[in-house]
Design a protein that fits this description.
With about 250 residues, the protein is of the alpha+beta class. The protein has one domain: Creatine Amidinohydrolase (Alpha-Beta Complex), CATH 3.90.230. The protein is built from four helices and 15 strands. The strands form four sheets. Strands 8-7-9-14-15 form a five-stranded antiparallel β-sheet. Strands 1, 2, 4 and 5 form a four-stranded antiparallel β-sheet that branches. It is globular, with a radius of gyration of 17 Å.
């Protein structure tokens, strides 16, 4: 199963991804102590709709907001609301865009004000693990080569990867096959081929990999209450080196 896209389809996915990047650039100017997650979400929605696209998460399987904003021990799928960001916290923002018939998707974790060394290291290692995975997203490799590279970088730093949640393919749908776990042995799973579009997204916990889903049915939190970071790129599998479509985050 390759699920490869044509070059025309890739160009349309690229346009969605460029809007994702532009939205993150707007978000970066707003992240500061005192802003609420709901205020951020409203600005994200306004920005995307104002450019003729749709926030892909809004209404997806009943999700009530335009972005996922997850603070500190919230891993992913945090529902924006009245929570004010505090200096010293980290916040993960996950944004999807549907432009025409095609999707783009990315995530980034930000420091709010000044954060401690442990949180800085957690963010740095998560980002490095993402790029270790990206480096394996080449024609002829297998999905688990990405997974193994992510896990190896994370665990070498003493952190843990979330196992219940995965990256994914995307295109005309927000989530397509193949699933891309962040752990596993090499040389297993579907073979990668040129033109496949993947969203690779390490979710990394400072403590245990164990997580729970909150009563809202969406917000995933670390079981031990320790902070978590999340970075994600959409890319195209190519020969020799992957092409990152969300480059510029």
């Amino acid at each position: 199963m390759s699920n490869a896209k044509s070059e025309r389809e890739i160009q349309l996915i690229r346009a969605s991804c460029e809007l994702v990047v532009a939205t993150f650039q707007m978000v970066e100017r707003l992240i500061a102590p005192g802003i609420t997650t709901g205020e951020l979400d409203r600005e994200i929605e306004k920005f995307i709709i104002g450019r003729g696209a749709w926030p892909a998460f809004k209404g997806y399987r009943g999700y009530p907001a335009s972005s996922c904003i997850s603070v500190e021990s919230e891993v992913v799928h945090g529902i924006p609301g009245d929570r004010r960001l505090l200096s010293g916290e980290i916040v993960s923002v996950d944004i999807g865009v549907k432009l025409g018939d095609f999707y783009g998707d990315a995530a980034k974790t930000y420091a709010v004000g000044v954060v401690d060394d442990r949180r800085q290291t957690l963010m740095r290692v998560t980002r490095e693990a993402l790029y270790e995975g990206v480096a394996r997203a080449i024609d002829g490799n297998r999905v688990s080569d990405i997974s193994h590279a992510v896990q190896t970088r994370v665990e070498a730093a003493g952190f843990s990867v979330v196992r219940e949640l995965v990256g994914h393919g995307l295109g005309r749908r927000l989530h397509e096959e193949p699933q891309v776990p962040n752990y596993g042995s090499t040389r297993r799973g579907p073979r990668l081929s040129t033109g496949m579009v993947l969203a690779i997204e390490p979710m990394v916990n400072a403590g245990s990999h164990e997580v729970d889903t909150g009563d809202d049915g969406w917000t995933v939190r670390t079981r031990d209450g320790q902070p978590s970071a999340h970075f994600e790129h959409t890319l195209v599998v190519r020969q020799g080196a992957a092409e990152i479509l969300t480059k510029g985050l």
